[in-house]
Amino acid sequence: MGSRTPMETLGEALIRLGKHGYERGFRPRAGGLLDLDGTSFAPEDLVLEEIVRFEGESDPQDEAVLFALRTSDAQQKGTFVASYGPGMDALSVAVVERLTAMQRQRKVEGPRRADD
Length: 116
Known about the structure:
The protein is α+β, with helices and mostly antiparallel strands.
């Protein structure tokens, strides 16, 4: 499948992932994530496939992070995007902390990409 370019933009990453079925959009809510259809998910109930960080060209504090996520049965795939850094809202902070804790626990399995 495709590979990510070194200077991939957020839009390019969303297009790349969308081509591989990551079409649902997730947003933070108390206790986890909500997809655009209104289905809620605890971060621990999702499989974290890929994390992509972005830094603004003109302002290093203009950062974002993109998470490619899927359900364990791979029937639902989507992305969660959050601003990254001091301006991150409290709901996003809680979700990102839980998602990155999951990544640290699963790191023993080795790296993987959503489009591999």
